[in-house]
Amino acid sequence: MTRNREAGIAGMKDMGRLMKELMPKLKGKADGKLVSQRVKEILEKEGRRLDSAR
């Protein structure tokens, strides 16, 4: 998730911005609902990791 931090993506509050960037690249290749679910899982995991590092 280092790239996410470099892109200014800090957690769930940035999910919409991330999905807006991803979906045009994945159109016709992946189901948006599945992409959203996976992005949410990753952001939640990253958020927990960052919280425990504080």
Automatic annotation (TrEMBL):
It holds the Pfam family YqeY. One of its GO terms (molecular function) is carbon-nitrogen ligase activity, with glutamine as amido-N-donor. SUPFAM superfamilies: GatB/YqeY motif. InterPro entries: Asn/Gln_tRNA_amidoTrase-B-like, GatB_Yqey_C_2, YqeY/Aim41. This is Uncharacterized protein. It comes from Candidatus Hakubella thermalkaliphila.
